[in-house]
Amino acid sequence: MKKMKFMVFGLLSMVTILSCTKNFDEINTDQNGFLSTEVSAKFFLTDTQYKLYSPDRFPYWRAHLIHTDRFAGHFTFGFNGCWWSDELGYTYNGGYTDAAYGWLAGYLGNIKGFTDFVKEGGELENEYMYAMALIIKGLYYQMYTETFGMVPYTEAGVEGILTPKYDDQKTIYKGVIAELDEAMAIIGSAERTGLGVDDAGENDVYCGGDLQKWKRLANTLKLRIGMRALGAPGDDFAASAISEALGAPLLDDTTGSVVMNKDFVISQWAAAAYGDVWHNFGTGSDWTVSSALVNMLQDNNDPRLAAYVKPAKGGIFKFVDNPETPDANYQERVDFIIGALDDAGADYTTSMSGDTTIVELATGQYVGQPSRINGDTYSYVRYDLFSTPSDAVIQPKTSSQVDGYPEIILTSAEAYFLQAEAVLKGLQGATGDAQDLFAKGIKEAMTLWGISGGDADTYIANEAAADITVGTLDEKLEKIAHQRWLVSYTDGFEAWAVVRDTGYPSELAAGVSNQTIFALGTLNGDYPQRLRYGSGAQDNPNFSAVAPAQGEDMQGTTLWFAQ
């Protein structure tokens, strides 16, 4: 983002002024302040947008890296020299959970503040920015409810209600869809939010002020929610929502995806990126890339491999059982590490020198680290044996650097994948050829990472992973789920939801059971289904109604959409 997009920081004092005054005309005529032609809600839009996908470093660490990115199965901790085993996140930690909950629950204030400015009768009234606010609210609530389950929605932010009730996920989904419909109706055929200072333009870091792209974003989100809710217990709205969404414009190869470029100028304490935490703390806080991701890319000759991941450094690695503190499971753990190299198809040699096992791994190879490795296996997991994220993902945040890989809001690739799935399932309103839609989704997904059209076409033409013309329905749906999971790389919230909803990749959804190698955590090895509420949730007396309706406040409680 350019510095000009963040005029909001220079205008923050206006928030206090606008919220305290009852006479906005005084500001309009005060020549020592802002002229009416200089004031616009767009200066408050950017702040509202980026805090949903790039909050400050404190929640970015705890919500994204420790929890959702870990659960998504893309990234791993737990190599020798790391501060933690890969049990982190899978074992409940109140401090980390509170940070994640506090950020997401607290974000509602951001969206409400902006909405109050731009709604009818608001001090910066703008019907098109109000439509934007409704769509941002939809993006937020989809993320919020799919992280925790029941949360306040219908009474949240309502004047005079200090302790709103907790709504079930079905109610939230239906409410979001209704508000998305309202937003799309408001936008209609309009293209911009206004003229001059009222044109959101660059201050809109999602769509650049293009209202028709906002409309497609809203409709694609509607399709996502409908497909996610389809078949859940008591679902009575998903089919119609899907049919309506399929009959209206979606994100596609003409619009491209909706993404938000990371800012490399403002402080990481205002908007964080992976590079902030990667480069701030040294190797102890680094993370590796999972075997689930690397092997899926590598086994299918996926050209995104080099864009997603850096090769392992390789080298010579010695494993010896300490005679003073022998490990009864030494050989099993060494064999496990060697097995991970085999699974990656790595070029390596092993040899013995006395009681020492020596592994020599050639440099320049892609090797993913298995997820959820426990603390006892930790010392066997050598950092240079495994791949790390690409430079585009972990680029340091300095003003001299170009933008790194952007934050994903919603991709055109997903729009195509969801359409392909709808066609395969024979849903009302679904049209077109499933394979053609699937192939377009793959090309859009690869475009995000700079993969050429030729390389994408080669992949589609030659790899079974890109072919849904053969196999059973379940096998075809598995391939679509895998592509949705792959395109959500770096978007842990959505990738985690894909696994919970579809059960794929199955190796993640199955959890772990071998206590010698893996950390079973609070979940006893099961795959995490949600985050626990933060401690602040109990302050609302209505919280007592959640457990009887949803189940225990545990990570293993399955949410409505995944039942």
Explain this structure:
- The protein has 563 residues and is mainly α.
- The chain has two domains: 41-278 and 408-550, Serine Threonine Protein Phosphatase 5, Tetratricopeptide repeat, CATH 1.25.40; 279-389, no CATH class.
- 45% of the residues lie in helices and 7% in strands.
- The protein contains 22 helices and eleven strands.
- The strands form five sheets. The protein has a three-stranded antiparallel β-sheet with strand order 7-9-8, covered by helices on one side.
- Helix 7 runs antiparallel to helix 8, helix 16 packs antiparallel against helix 17 and helix 19 (473-487) packs antiparallel against helix 20.
Side by side, the strands of the main sheet go 7-9-8
Please give the domain count: 2
In terms of DSSP E residues, the strand content is: 5-15%
- CATH classification, class level of the largest domain: Mainly Alpha
Signal peptide: 1-19
InterPro entries: SusD-like_2, TPR-like_helical_dom_sf
Keywords: Signal
Pfam family, one: SusD-like_2
Secondary-structure map with pairings?
Elements: H1 7-10, H2 12-20, H3 24-29, H4 42-53, H5 57-72, E1 75-76, H6 94-118, H7 127-148, E2 151-152, E3 166-167, H8 169-187, H9 211-229, H10 238-246, E4 258-260, H11 274-281, E5 288-289, H12 291-299, H13 305-308, E6 309-310, E7 315-320, H14 330-343, E8 348-353, E9 356-361, E10 388-389, H15 391-394, E11 407-410, H16 412-424, H17 434-447, H18 453-462, H19 473-487, H20 492-502, H21 506-509, H22 546-550
Antiparallel strand pairs: 1-5, 2-3, 4-11, 6-10, 7-9, 8-9
Organism: Flagellimonas olearia
Protein name: SusD/RagB family nutrient-binding outer membrane lipoprotein
Keywords: Signal
